[in-house]
Amino acid sequence: MFFPTAYITRNALALLVLVLIAGPAQATMSSAERDGLDLREYVVTDREASYFDVEARRAFLQETDDLVLRGVADRLSLETACRDKMALPVVDFRIELPSFYAQQVRWRRLVQPIFAFEAAVSELAAAHLSSSDSYHAECLVEFLSRWASRNAFEDYDYRSNDRQAWYQVEAAIFASAMAYSIVRPSIVGHEAELARINAWMLRLARRHSSFEGVYPSCCNNHLYRRATYAAMVGVLTGDNRLFQFGVSGIYSALSDATGDGALPHEMERGRLATHYQNFALIYLVMTAQIIEQQGYSIFDRPYRGSTLHELIDFNISIIEDPMNLGDHAPGDVQSRSWMEDDQYFAWAEIYLAHRANARLTNIVEPRRPLYNRSSGGYLSLFFYDPSRPVWGNESSFPSPELRPMN
């Protein structure tokens, strides 16, 4: 078994011992295998579709008396000011970031302009959904057009032994793409701005996804993050190859998964295995939702014996009790501090809109309203339905009418 030299850290050496004792690891789907997947059935069917039905959700929010949802919607529609977002400095310079784990304090200071961008686009999109006029939608288009005209995020450091800037640009791409998808269908006029944004997002996505990434970034949660923006930008621009790249991320995860739903590359993180299994699902579930909105039932699609449901069930079990990791990773030393940050559970709102799961509901209910700055933003606002049943992991809810496949 080959482990690149740069990857053999103290934690990796400990893992290597476990692997040698336990036997060979699950085979990884290579980039060549992903490229060889026959995904021709997956084409963009509706360039105006977001990752949820925006108009149906707006109508729902206007009728609901749920205090959680009403509180978020009212605050956003009343307090989100365009001038504050337009005042943010554009990240049109070369992005160089230290490693998150090696220099967290310095990383956190340098990454703030990117965080501010992600928060701004997520807030403007949610405010548009929560209000009855075009103010926030037009502001978001003006905001993104300004950043596009300055070629923001196009210059970043990428080296085989230092990829933090590359990682950070992932989040900026899908935060902007998902926010843009919510407002674009309602924009009248502004053709020049829309064309500029579309071209910018397409450049960003194509260039960023052209980097394969060395092991394990080629194949782990970073692949799934690239799949998320690829799927969304593919929809927005009608680029079937990008959309299919997004689909391939789902197939790769299902191919790699063990019989009980563990993702081996995330299990390699040792004491952070639970955190990274959950982290991977943020992007796998979001990508699946984008694909579903194009008319493809990907949540229930099996591949090599697995569906996304098994990955999610395993994730729930190890959150409930880390000892359920079994031989995949040391359960008795699992880090649990990440669970104090509610953003890591926002993906559950999407999943619960598809399938009842009382155990998952028990995890997310005390944390609502759920928000993830870069991956969708205000996901409780977009997906939570307080009248939805919570019992019955086996019963799927009817999806919105699926669009016909081409």
Structure in words:
The chain is mainly α. Helix content is 53%, strand content 0%. The chain is built from 18 helices and no strands. The chain has helices spanning 10-22, 31-36, 54-63, 67-79, 82-86, 104-110, 112-130, 135-149, 164-183, 191-210, 221-237, 240-256, 264-267, 273-292, 308-320, 347-352, 358-364, 379-383. The radius of gyration is 20 Å and the shape is globular. The relative contact order is 0.13. The model is unreliable at 1-25 and 394-406 (pLDDT under 50).
Task: Give the key terms.
406 residues, mainly alpha, Glycosyltransferase, 0% strand, globular, disordered N terminus
Set out the fold topology.
Elements lengths: L9 H13 L8 H6 L17 H10 L3 H13 L2 H5 L17 H7 L1 H19 L4 H15 L14 H20 L7 H20 L10 H17 L2 H17 L7 H4 L5 H20 L15 H13 L26 H6 L5 H7 L14 H5 L23
Helix pairs in contact: 4-7, 7-8, 7-9, 8-9, 8-10, 9-10, 9-11, 10-11, 11-12, 11-14, 12-14, 14-15
